[in-house]
Design a protein that fits this description.
The chain is mainly beta. It contains 1 helix and 21 strands. It folds into 2 domains: 79 residues, Immunoglobulins (Immunoglobulin-like), CATH 2.60.40.10; 169 residues, no CATH class.
Length: 295
């Protein structure tokens, strides 16, 4: 009798073990999300979400970035690849499977596109100079955020008078009629092609101060050469100006001409001077230093 009971107990335990094993095999392991790379990007940027136990079929997954649905371009058990959708804003990256949603701990930052353009005939008025008395006149101020000249006392980044360029950062230089500095602007000069300057990171930014400008004045000291024989002001080849704006964003500038309508071979005695034409690239994202030229 005892032998029969023992055999029955052993059989029951074995049956229960097999049954439990079969049940476990039918339950999928819980999925996880661990990271997103990169952690920021503009609309259209490809990003990779890593984790574990993702379904093999993309139709079983709902993915959102900042609350906006994102299409899945490929999926495996450990990776989901997607692109930042139009309309997305900075926020959570959320993966939902079978009604269970999980967010990546780090918010994804949706960046605005870099802005670029060419400014033509920005007038840099000046009184005096060249034997006509003390230099003066108001500076013509420019904002990278708008890509336009501005009369604002605070929302400006750089300002022009004659061959002098001021930045909205530092202190007044003592120059007549100079604008008040109330931002954190600065400037650096790099020897390179415009397209070769891809980042504002790691540079030393000078500011205006007593008796000195961040962009040095005088022929061959900053951005230009003056030929007294031909009376021509020419941008120095390969001199690119990189600016930290008044509100800690970044831009690069390539000055193309100092004469109205940017003649290829200016006549220093006939062409109208003090008209800047320049290319620029501006990054409107706080703390972002990318200055890659748009194609």
């Amino acid at each position: 009798m005892k032998t029969t009971v023992k055999l029955f107990t052993l059989f029951f335990a074995l049956f229960a073990f097999v049954a439990c094993s079969d049940d476990d095999e039918g339950v999928p392991e819980e999925f996880t999300v661990t990271a997103v790379s990169p952690e920021s990007g503009t609309v259209g940027t490809e990003i990779t979400i890593t984790g574990t136990n993702f379904p093999s079929d993309a139709s079983d997954v709902t993915l959102t970035i900042g609350g906006v649905s994102a299409a899945i371009t490929s999926i495996s058990s450990t990776q989901i690849i997607t692109t930042v959708p139009a309309g997305a804003s900075t926020g959570a990256v959320s993966v939902t499977v079978d009604g269970t949603a999980k967010n990546i701990s780090t918010e994804f930052r949706v960046l605005a596109d870099l802005e670029s353009g060419t400014v033509e005939n920005l007038f840099a008025p000046q009184t005096g100079g060249q034997g006509q008395g003390e230099i003066g006149g108001e500076f013509n101020k420019f904002s990278f955020a708008t890509g336009l000249e501005t009369d604002s006392e605070t929302e400006w980044d750089i300002a022009f008078r004659g061959t002098t360029i001021a930045v909205n950062g530092g202190a007044v230089t003592g120059t007549n009629d100079a604008p008040a500095r109330n931002g954190n602007g600065g400037a650096a000069i790099e020897d390179a092609l415009f397209s070769e300057i891809t980042s504002a990171d790691g540079l030393t930014y000078a500011q205006d101060g007593t008796g000195v400008f961040a962009i040095p004045t005088g022929s061959d000291n900053g951005w230009y050469n003056y030929n007294f024989m031909t009376n021509v002001v020419s941008p120095l080849p390969g001199k690119i100006l990189i600016f930290r704006t008044h509100d800690d964003k970044y831009a690069k500038v390539e000055i193309l001409s100092y004469y109205e309508d940017a003649p290829a071979s200016p006549d220093g005695f006939a062409d109208s001077a003090r008209y800047y034409t320049f290319n620029y690239v501006y990054n409107p994202n706080q703390g972002e230093t990318d200055l890659t030229s748009a194609e």
